[in-house]
Structure formats: structure tokens, C-alpha cells
Amino acid sequence: MPRRLLDSQSSRLWVLDVDSGDRRLVLESNSLLFEAPNWTPDGRDLVINGDGRLFRIAVDGSEHALTEIDMAGVADINNDHLVSPDGATIYVSSDDGHLYAIPYRGGENRRVSNDRGPHFRHYLHGISPDGATLAYIGLEMTADAPRTNVFTVPSAGGEDASLTDDAWPDDGCEYSPDGQWIYFNSERAGTGAGHAQLFRMRLDGTGIEQLTHDERVNWFPHVSPDGARMAYVSFPPGTLGHPENLEVILRLAEPDGAGVRDLVHLFGGQGTINVPSWAPDGRRLAYVDYPVG
């Protein structure tokens, strides 16, 4: 079931200049809980989800209303979606557990993911720079516990490739702009349950490197289009998973994890920057917060 706002809570969509610190409010709603902004490659629109549906809105404020994107035939979606490099397609994760390709300006939708059984669900996070391959988290319900691992699949459809195959919780897998790395968060080096840190690995799953080493819980690494820096959301120590309605920090670092600095302290978490959220210019970042009162 799609998330709903709490009493006296609102959703606010911001665009932040990461160099100057200036930010601009694009959209605010006290009725629709929206999440996870993507930019279109031309820099004109932001794409968000809300109430199981998909919307776009002009970045410059020339259109103050949301425009719904047609997803006919696709069940409600969650906040794992992204725009193809050519801007023609939006890939989404549906509540039926599968990945779909949605034409941005209308057309026939198609399923991308394979049927891996009733106990397996797909959660989309990344697309290769050439648009040919999707990176997703596969969640498999086993007799012992849920397992989450990193997979890839051709965006046109085809055979899956498993990049991790272990019991450590992994999430947020996303390609670097040069196509050489997949960034992700994982508990594989954690000091306790839920202690996720940021990592990257080669496209075949080898050469895993740990990028952050602190007491906070770090999720959803997004490398800027110019490859110069990495944004992520940092949860308080001891957080399990990536829940909503917490005091979190948006942080900026170099792609290897060095030079960490705080960008914004906000009330949010889940839905704030779950998906690639850099502007094409590599200077601005879109995010959502959820203030109460």
C-alpha cells in the first residue's frame, strides 16, 4: 500500500545547489506523499512517484501542477524508478515484484524482469550510461530470512546476472557515469545489525571497495554525472533499514568516499533520495523532505 502523510505533515520537493548551498522549493503538498526525484536528461523536468503513480513537474516552476505519466496496465509502483539516458523511457519497480519500461511521452508499456518465482521481487536502482543494462536488488524470501543481492538485466529483456550472492543485506545499486563501477550500500562490514556503509565493485562483482567508515548508517550513493562527487543519505547510528520520518543528513563526498561534508539536515529518510537525483549539470541535487507541523 502506498505511503500516506501523517497529520500536519507535508511533502516538499527541493532543488539544491551543492556548491552555494542555495535551494529552491519546486513543489509542496499536504495531501500527496511523493518521493524519489529523478531528472530528465534535458534538465527540464523532475519525475517523482506518489500514491502508487508516476508524475513529472517542470524544474523551473513554469508549470506548478503535477502531470501524471501514463502507466496503463502496470500495478502501483514504489519509489524505485529512473529515466533512461535518452529520456525516452522510465523504468519502474511495480508492487507486483517486477520491473517495467514506461514510455515517457506515451506508448506501450512492457515488462523487463524475468519470472524468478513467487518468493523473488525486483527493486530497480541503476541504469548503465549506454542505457543497455539495469541494476537492481533482488529480494528473495528464504526459509531462514530475506536475502538481498545485486543483479543486472538487459533493459531490452534477457538473462539476469548475479553480482553478489551472500547473506549480507545489499541495496541501492547504481552505475558510475563512466560505466566502470556499481556503487551500493551494504551491511557486509557493519559493526551491528543495520549498520550499512557505502561500497563499489566492478561490473562482474569483483574488486569490492568500502567507501565510508563511520558510525552512521549510510544509504543510496549517487555519483554526479561528471563523476566528481557522490551524494548519499546518512541515517542516525543504530537505524535498521532505511525508514521514513527520521532526522537524516544529505552528505557529499568524493567518489572514493574521501572529503565527506554535510549538505542538508532534514526530516525524511525513505523517499528523500532513493534513486539517481543529480541534475545533468552535476551541480544541483533534487530531494524530498517531510516536515511535520
Task: Offer a quick outline of the entry.
It comes from Demequina activiva. The chain is mostly beta strands.
CATH classification class: Mainly Beta
How much of the sequence lies in strands comes to over 45%
Number of helices: 0
Strand order of the largest sheet: 3-4-5-6
Describe this structure in words.
Belongs to the TolB family. This is Biopolymer transporter Tol. The protein is mainly beta. Helix content is 0%, strand content 47%. It is built from no helices and 23 strands. The strands form six sheets. Strands 3-4-5-6 form a four-stranded antiparallel β-sheet, with no helix packed on it. The protein has a four-stranded antiparallel β-sheet with strand order 7-8-9-10, with no helix packed on it. Strands 11-12-13-14 form a four-stranded antiparallel β-sheet, with no helix packed on it. A hairpin with a 7-residue loop joins strand 21 (246-253) and strand 22. The chain starts with 10 loop residues before the first strand and ends with a strand. The mean pLDDT is 96.
Main features:
mainly beta, Neuraminidase, 4-stranded antiparallel beta sheet, 47% strand, globular
Fold blueprint:
Layout: E1 11-17, E2 23-29, E3 34-39, E4 45-50, E5 53-58, E6 67-68, E7 77-83, E8 89-94, E9 99-103, E10 110-111, E11 120-127, E12 133-141, E13 146-154, E14 161-162, E15 170-175, E16 181-186, E17 197-202, E18 209-210, E19 217-223, E20 230-235, E21 246-253, E22 261-268, E23 284-289
Antiparallel strand pairs: 1-2, 1-23, 3-4, 4-5, 5-6, 7-8, 8-9, 9-10, 11-12, 12-13, 13-14, 15-16, 16-17, 17-18, 19-20, 20-21, 21-22
